[in-house]
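Section 4.2 – Deliverable D4.2 (structural model, holo form)

The reporting period included a commitment to supply a predicted holo structure for the target in complex with copper (II) ion. Inputs used:
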Amino acid sequence: MNKSVAIKSSVSMGKAAPAAKKSRFSANTKLIIGAGAVVVVLGGLIIVAMPEPGASKPATVASRSTGSPGTAGALNALATKFNFGSIPMSGGKVTHRYWIRNAGTQPILIRKMYTSCMCTTAALVKSSGKKFDPVGMPGHGYIPTMNEPMAPNEEAIIEVVFDPAAHGPAGIGPIDRVVTIENSAGRPLELAFAANVTP
Ligand SMILES: [Cu+2]
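Output (structure tokens):
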């Protein structure tokens, strides 16, 4: 047995030079095939990431890559901060939609939502399309206990409306407001926005 192994191995050694050439060639081929596969995979990702033609609904949290993520336990916001920029007092109310998501593995209850000022309202919009009544500042209207469940991976929108005329001329200048979402997953999630109200 030992002898036959030795013979086989000497046969292989005899063919070593051409084998090396051949293997270098196949390595190059593999590289080219590999590069082709990467292009195909990247192309696939780009196609997947592109919005459907004519799709009017906003992109989902998962497919959007901008913004600084915020978190309160398992309740996440794609971005917790927004700036309206300069908005005229006479221009009417402005709206911003924050995306929130249950990033955990257990259901979360949205217990209560409220805003930091009477010029600002916030409404929960579920992925089903169900929109809850907007809530405002505690003491300026009723803040209901919601106990609204969000399943793991479920996304929702917090639709925030700011009225730049709510404070009259006294409200002209830079403003900062916060929407607080009390939930069963941890500390409250806070969504903030800024604006500069002009006359
Ligand atoms: Cu206000």
